[in-house]
Amino acid sequence: MSLKDLTPFGKKNIPVRKDADNPFALFRKEFDDLFDAFFRTFDLKPLEPSIGSFSPRVDVVDSEKEISIKAELPGMDEKDIDVSLSRGVLTIRGEKKEEKEDRGKDYFRMERSYGSFNRSIELPAEVDETMIKANFKKGVLDITLSKTPKAVQETRKIKVTVE
Fold first, then answer.
1. pLDDT confidence of residue 51
2. Are 91 and 83 in contact (CB under 8 A)?
3. Which of 16, 45, 65, 143 qualifies as a FRET site for 30, CA 20 to 30 Å off?
4. What percent of the chain has pLDDT over 70?
């Protein structure tokens, strides 16, 4: 066998294998498309941190007579927060502005970050709109919503048995 036989330059019909023929390549493409579609629903790109965005942590506790919501809003003032209730959905909106300045003998550094957030929480029960309390202290927003008498009545305990 000569070197000329090993090189494809003189041959006219060279078989080319496409990814469409490879089942592993097809599986990988479908898997990548699945991840892309999943992250597209959140307006995020996969495995990329969202720089500058802020989404507060929220805890919701549904007790017998009231619903308690706590949102962590560190570094914010009460004037930057807006709380509203419409059709059984509580919405917390706000804008976070942060500026850090660092001066030294031979340097000056200033960092600014701005961002807004919007959290909507569908309430699990009907609430009395006249009995809503919101308190903001040390970066924690505490909202208490009293349930209506009808919502309290409709709650019933279900006995769990063991077999």
1. 45
2. yes
3. 16
4. 77
